[in-house]
Amino acid sequence: MRILTRFRRGFSLLWERKWQVLRGLACMPISALLVLWMAQLLGRVVDRLRTHSDGGYDESALLEDCLLLAAIAAVDAVLRFGGRHQLINASRHMEARLKSELNAHLAKLSISWFDRARTGDLLSRITQDVELVRFVTGPTLLYGTSAIVLVPGGVYLMLEFSPLVAGAALVSFVIMLAGIALLMPRLHKHSKAVQEAIAEISQRAAESFNGIRVLLAFARGRGEVEAMSQLSNRYVDCNIELAKLRAWFNVLIHACREIVIIAVVVLGAIEVGNGTLTIGQLLTFLALLGAMVWPLIAIGWIVASWHRAVAAADRIEEVFSAEPEAQTGRDVELHGRIEIRGLTFTYPEQSQPALIDIDLTIEPGQRIGVVGPIGSGKSTLLAILLRFYDPPRGTVLVDGIDILDISPKSVRKVFAVAPQDPFLFSDTLGGNISFGHEDVDVEGFAAAASLDTDLDAFPEGWETIVGERGVTLSGGQKQRTSLARALAADRPALVLDDTLSAVDLATERRILDNLRSARGNRTLVAIAHRLSIVQESDLILVLEDGRVTARGKHAELVRQPGYYADTWRRQSEETMLERGLPE
Amino acid sequence: MVQFRGYSDDQVEARLDFAHLRDIWPFVRPYRGAFAACLLILLLSFGIEILGPFLVRWAIDGPIADAADGRPMDVSAIAWLGGAYLATSLVGTFLSFSYGMLTAKNGQRVVRDLRLHLFRHMFLLGPPFFDKNPAGKLVTRITSDVENLNELIATGVLQTVFDLLKIVGIVAVLFLLDFDLALFGLVVIPLLVGVSLMFRRYARDAYRKVRSRLAKQNAFTAETVGGVRAIRGYGREAAVQQHFDELNEGTRDGWRETILYFAMFFALVELALRFSQAGLLYVGGRGIFEGTVTAGLFVQFWMYFTKLSEPIRELGEKYNVLQSAFSSSERIFGILGEAESPPRAKDPVESRPGPATLRFRDVAFRYLPDVPVLDGVDLDVPAGTTCAFIGPTGAGKSTILSLVSRLHDPTEGRITLDGDDLRDLELESLRRRIAVVPQDVFLFTGTILENLRLSDESIPELRVREAIDAIGAADFVNALDGGLHAQVEERGATFSQGERQLLAMARALCHDPDLLILDEATANIDSESEARIQRALDVLFEDRTVLVVAHRLSTVRSADQVIVVDGGRVQVRS
Description:
The complex is a heterodimer of chains A (583) and B (574). With 583 residues, chain A is α/β, with parallel strands linked by helices. Chain A has helices at residues 2-6, 8-15, 18-50, 59-106, 111-116, 119-161, 163-210, 212-217, 221-274, 279-321, 378-385, 408-412, 429-434, 442-448, 475-489, 505-518, 554-557, 563-578; strands at 338-345, 355-362, 367-371, 396-398, 401-402, 415-419, 427-428, 465-466, 493-497, 523-528, 539-544, 547-552. Chain A folds into two domains: 2-321, ABC transporter transmembrane region fold; 330-414 and 525-583, Rossmann fold, CATH 3.40.50. The longest helix of chain A is centred in the middle third of the chain and has 54 residues, at 221-274. At the A-B interface, helix 3, helix 4, helix 6, helix 7 and helix 8 of A face helix 2, helix 3, helix 4, helix 5 and helix 6 of B.
């Protein structure tokens, strides 16, 4: 019963609604019994009608039977409603709980886990895979419990009437089920091909639109349309293949149903001739066939979908089985004195160290600059300070305590990071700045980050919705929002992670001026490519290939030949040209 | 706590507007024969559907009744009727198969044509269009919106008309067969229609609501995964979980509503059918007592009734499909109605390759009526010379360059290339003479080769190799696994800034432009890359007319003229 262990989590969540499930499960078999009863009653009435001349059946008896039929139908309708309502709701409850638990589990996983996970894949697990499990669970309960009674009951009744006719019907059903089981996997395969084909179109279009300026400038529009035309043709072919399968699927069901009817009518007619079957029983037969076809199709469909649901459940379990982030360490209030002693760090599953032998002491209130080319280890250093990754014991201390002995939550409370490419949530501009902190002087912090000058660009001021589902901000506006957010968080240390890279020089100047007073007595750690940002730092660290290749104040570093002096010269030239003053 | 308010409920109402069918017609027209065939198939299959129950009735009232009443059964009659039924089933199956295939083909082809037309048109709309529409939104137009039209085109209109016809047709047949029974049927049909209509409205609204909630929940999930570092860094895990649970429960409650309607609908449709069955049994039974109705007629009636419920149910569902298709077509034809930018010249002149001389005469440009970006710009760039632009960010340097390749047109004044006004030139021939090296290099998913020649097969691979050699990018390109045929990963994020710049220069060089537009890269270039870029520039600038936004002194020094751009005005130095 491997399937049961796979779905254990789903079942236990479903069981949270056990009365709902039980009520629903009780409804469906009873409804199935009523369907059988109605089919029988129909046949009996027709037989009585045919033999009414023999006496004993009149209009009032007919009316009674018809009313009984209507009454059964009414009860059946209530049961059908109840069964579907209870079971599908229970399955939706399971889906919601599963999503919530997944989300809660994700919150515990380490950043390095997120680094390894591919975003698209992860999202499809949280959304589509959970929905797929739900999608199979609900109907399985609903049609399963109904079919368990309906199919054996129907077969029993048929056998009682006429084993020959029942045999013919059963053979057709078996063929139909076998056909469904055979076609379903292909249907899945082809619908996947169709999805992939449209995904390709979508990706290609996204590429074209993102690179539109290049394409327009090089007059390559025609080439893109040509490529799109090929993709579209392939998509059409995939769709026609799928349509063909679907058409065959319909042929199968249609043909089976019709052939059953012919077989039943022809064979039944012969039996009627032999006197072993009445016309009424023949009608009951046809009614039973009609009632059984749909649950059988549903069963075929469910059986064929189960392997996908099992695969989806496995992918979900994989996320659940990922180890949560180490929660070692205690909660402490920290001032933010940071000591790094001979830190060498290698990312998990990599051989080359990202940081080699780093020494650094940051006193509260100091201004520290970290510069260096891309990939020199600046971001790694920051990630370790935030305990997104664990360094070797004894190499990083905060307030004299080894970082491994401090809970990640406490460590992170020391820093307010403003990243270069910040993530803005679909929320108001103000909400993105206060970011959950109450009574925040949004305007004040926005002014310090020089964002107030752009307020006119936002239709509803601080109440404008921004982010994925709102107004798109320019790179510079995003960065300044991120800075305002970091200031609003009011943490002992403010970290600028190349925060002002998309901001023009004049604005940068203004922000740096504002920061002098806005940062108060907070520590300022500035990671930057533009040296004007670290120029005033008490200590500047130059990182190259994971090592500190130079350290000191700006005045000292510009005089030493090397990365810092080179970069300074280049950036000064650029600034000069921006001011329009050559010579 | 007021938070994440981006997710408040919002609903878009779409109108049912048949005017769009006229817009769609030109795309359907080429396949009108196939659509006519579909209509024919539908009519034929309707005939088959009417015929089947007659055969069943004849079998029951003929040989079967004989047998039941102890008369000798006419075996040949039952064989004949069985055979006829089998034949009609086979023909019906064949027709439904052909219908499925034909409609799929028709819909897909029309939709493909529409998609390509839309895609091509977007290119003609130019930068202003792409500036105001995010790429993600446009991708949705090309994919889901076009897709939404598929069902409308393939089966929507035809099927809806036919469903209506079918209902009328079956009712007519019922009346011809037996007036009393048919009259009873007319009582039941409104009941079914009523249930369907009610369901249609409530379920659609509920479903739409839950779809929009689910979309928001999924978007939030995507944001929390993308923004995981910000959430952890600021310790916002609990608030995120709380908000997620709110959204999640909102979605679940939304589902609860749809489940209620669906459960009601399925139960009620079943109930309506059963009630009419009981009623039919009673009315028919009385007819049997009176001798006006036979068992066969009763069964035939019953079969028609079952058939009737199908188009009625379909109509309810089709309404939703049509509605979403109409709102999509509104968006699509809205784009198709937009004017091309730049506008096409009346009698375009082909711009011929050769040395390029560029002139600006009193050029002004503004995005908004009262905000001039450029004003009174006069420039002369003789063929084969280099013109460097300097000045503060936002002063208009990039705008001047964008006017040359006609990404925008001047609001006033004129720009000429070799004496021809740019606006009179055939756009593609103009752009083929120009190559652009932007500051921020865009690399497409694909091989290096495809990225350099931009899938222009007329540029031989050899020329691309020569360009790479000349630019000095050969060493790192050849070091890649697959060399020139290596796939660009993560939009080129694996390359350093300097390498990306070199690739952009190689891209320009292999297109061998007469006029080169270049925005020098600044950030993150190490000293070694800088020296390489300097050598590459020397190669690239040779024998070409060059407009360059300069960020380095050496570029300014080697330029033939230097233009200072400030506040939208230009000043010529040296």
